[in-house]
Design brief:
Layout lengths: L5 E6 L5 H10 L4 E7 L3 H17 L1 H5 L6 E2 L3 H5 L6 E4 L6 H10 L3 E4 L7 H14 L3 E3 L7 H11 L6 E9 L19 H5 L1 H12 L2 E9 L4 E3 L9 E3 L5 E8 L4 E7 L8 E7 L2 E4 L10 E4 L27 E3 L12 H12 L7 H20 L3 E2 L25
Parallel strand pairs: 1-2, 1-4, 2-3, 4-5, 5-6, 7-12
Antiparallel strand pairs: 7-13, 8-11, 8-17, 9-10, 11-12, 13-14, 14-15, 15-16
């Protein structure tokens, strides 16, 4: 088996690139970043300078012969570089399709940030092209591969809450224009709360509950414009082109029903709530935009005594929703921000021939579910989900065989 690091070209060196640069440089030793590219050259230069600085300050990186990535003048120079095996597409959502398509046409495997495309036509075209050329295609989110959701999956699969009957998850905030340096694209085609944050929640749902069968949803945009209050675009007005309030219910092939709510319209402190309910108990799943915990479990034996009256009548003060729930130990690696974990897994699969976990089958299924919310709202009807789905393999939790930063064979 070829043990040489897989050589990566990064296209797009914006806000999300920082954690990828950090983890590719320090954590995932089976990857080698050979070059970076951005429409704004200064961003590419900053990315390359970061790696150079880390090498200068870390003797372990020098021992591993980590090199400073080259700077490509444009993405086509990267696609034509014979060194490059995999293109890491970190461009804005509405640019994902064209960048991925051109990379595939140039014979490169592609791992992209979410979503795979902004609609099913884009996704299906990319998948057909990847299959035609026998190339790997995958992408974010990879948070489901982290310690938190992998532990939740293991507990559910082992029957800790019995048979799953349903779930409820919500992503509630007032948008990203108060903190993100370039927030306009969050209100343009391919973004909004469902396509931006929804991938984390819907991916976690299908990992935990399996294939979706159909859904009913409603959607709207509460504000036609947004005022940016973050630098460097403070004071600028953004026109809102996408739905910013989406809610509905997903029916799963298993019979479970999940209630989902995402919005950029609400002032709220706890951005994420994710719960799964079973015949023998309930589980609080950690924020699916993170890699760690906590994972909380509540079973009937956790109640000190059955209430004698309606418990709502005796409750006073601010409720503690998770009082009495037990925190479960995390059973897997990668509890901290490990973005590029999915990329590392795909690259290991490229070397070994196994399937990769963050694959296009999952991305397509998740995209169809997400786009069905607005579709259902416009049609005011139940929308069947037509793409099939099989859960990808769980992570391996044997520290005696697998080192941190080295994926399983």
């Amino acid at each position: 088996m070829d043990r040489k690091p897989v050589k990566i070209a990064m296209i797009g060196v914006g806000a999300i690139s920082g954690i990828y640069l950090q983890n590719i440089t320090h954590t995932f030793r089976e990857l080698e970043l050979v070059g970076v590219c951005d429409l704004i050259p200064e961003r590419a230069e900053k990315g390359a300078a970061y790696v150079k600085g880390e090498i200068e300050n870390d003797p372990q990186l020098r021992e591993r012969n980590v090199s400073v990535p080259k700077i490509y003048k444009d993405m086509y120079e990267a696609f034509n570089d014979p060194e490059v095996e995999v293109v890491l597409n970190l461009t804005r959502p509405y640019e994902h399709f064209e960048v991925t398509k051109q990379a595939l046409l140039h014979g490169k495997h592609v791992y992209s940030e979410k979503p795979l495309g902004v609609d099913m036509d884009e996704a299906n075209e990319l998948i057909a092209l990847a299959e035609e050329k026998n190339l790997r295609l995958g992408g974010a989110p990879d948070t489901f591969m982290g310690a938190g959701i992998q532990t939740a999956r293991r507990l559910i699969d082992d029957g800790y809450i019995g048979d799953v009957v349903g779930a409820s998850c919500a992503m509630v905030c007032h948008g990203h224009e108060t903190w993100h340096p370039d927030p306009e694209f969050y209100y343009k085609r391919g973004a909004g709360p469902m396509l931006d944050m929804g991938p984390y929640y819907i991916t976690a749902l299908v990992q935990l509950l399996g294939e979706a069968k159909g859904l009913m949803g409603m959607a709207k945009r509460s504000f036609t414009q947004r005022l940016i209050t973050s630098e460097p675009h403070r004071g600028e007005i953004v026109d809102v082109d996408v739905d910013t309030w989406l809610s509905g219910n997903i029916e799963f092939t298993s019979g479970a029903i999940a209630q989902v709510f995402t919005t950029f319209d609400v002032h709220y402190t706890a951005q994420s709530r994710f719960e799964v309910y079973g015949t023998r108990g309930s589980m609080m799943v950690p924020d699916p935009n993170t890699f760690g915990g906590p994972v909380l479990l509540l079973r009937p034996e956790d109640f000190a005594a059955a209430p004698k009256t309606d418990p709502g009548l005796s409750r006073h003060g601010v409720p503690d929703f998770y009082a009495g729930w037990r925190e479960m130990p995390l059973m897997y690696d990668y509890p901290v921000n490990s973005r590029a974990l999915g990329l590392a897994d795909m690259c290991k699969a490229l070397r070994t021939g196994r399937d990769h976990r963050a694959n296009y089958q999952q991305q397509r299924h998740v995209l169809e579910i997400m786009t069905a919310f607005s579709k259902s709202g416009k049609q005011k009807a139940y929308v069947p989900i037509t793409t099939g789905y099989e859960r990808t393999a769980p992570m391996v939790n044997d520290p005696l065989k697998i080192m941190h930063g080295i994926l399983d064979d």
